[in-house]
From TrEMBL:
Gene Ontology terms: cellular component: cytoplasm; plasma membrane
PANTHER family: TIRAP, TOLL_INTERLEUKIN-1 RECEPTOR DOMAIN-CONTAINING ADAPTER PROTEIN
Source species taxonomy: Eukaryota, Metazoa, Chordata, Craniata, Vertebrata
Annotated spans, Disordered: 9-40
Domain TIR: 70-206
Annotated Low complexity bias: 14-40
Name of protein: TIRAP protein
Organism: Uria aalge
Alphabetical GO biological process terms: positive regulation of canonical NF-kappaB signal transduction; positive regulation of chemokine (C-X-C motif) ligand 2 production; positive regulation of tumor necrosis factor production; toll-like receptor 4 signaling pathway
Amino acid sequence: AGWFRRLLRKPKPSSVESSLNSSCSASSSPSSSSVESSGSSPSTTLAGSVCPSLISVSDINASGSARWTKSYDVCICHSEVDLELVEELVSYLEGQPESFRCFLQLRDATPGSAVVTELCDAVQNSHCWVMLITPSFLQDPWCKYQMHQALAEAPMANGRTIPVVKDVDRKDYPRELRSLYYIYMAVKEKSFKQIRDTVVRYLQELCQSSTSGTD
């Protein structure tokens, strides 16, 4: 009887702690939602609550960080039609305190090199891959090729492939990406921040894993 009374008097976890735990659980589970029709936002996106990490931004930027094992932090996969929007995104990411290193094909590809070689090298030498899924992306065979290369490179790596959806109907969304959370670009500035936060989270996890492995 005594232990039963103590159990009844045991304090319940605070609402803040419960909220944090539920947010962490939600952010790690696969998305069951698909892309909504153009103009409406999805019920579940990649940019949910991010669980706290033991690795700080300063640790990510440290000279011995696992971040520097690859040439780029982010590879942007997009169609030429969407270049103006992508240039804004690259400018935003490169202007952040982390000074993200972005691969932009028309800017960073080696002149005279084969397209296939450049696309494969960009995927292999980048930590994260942002897929700007637009109607033009879906019609571009090179975009689809790069998407498949990214999925083949790290099919189970959480946070490396970041789908960003803009003006695409549910029926047209790539089936290959439906197991991943995505960002729906309704408000450009908000979406840019979501992309930045997702890349930071991946780099934090990468650095934390690297540090744990050397202990």
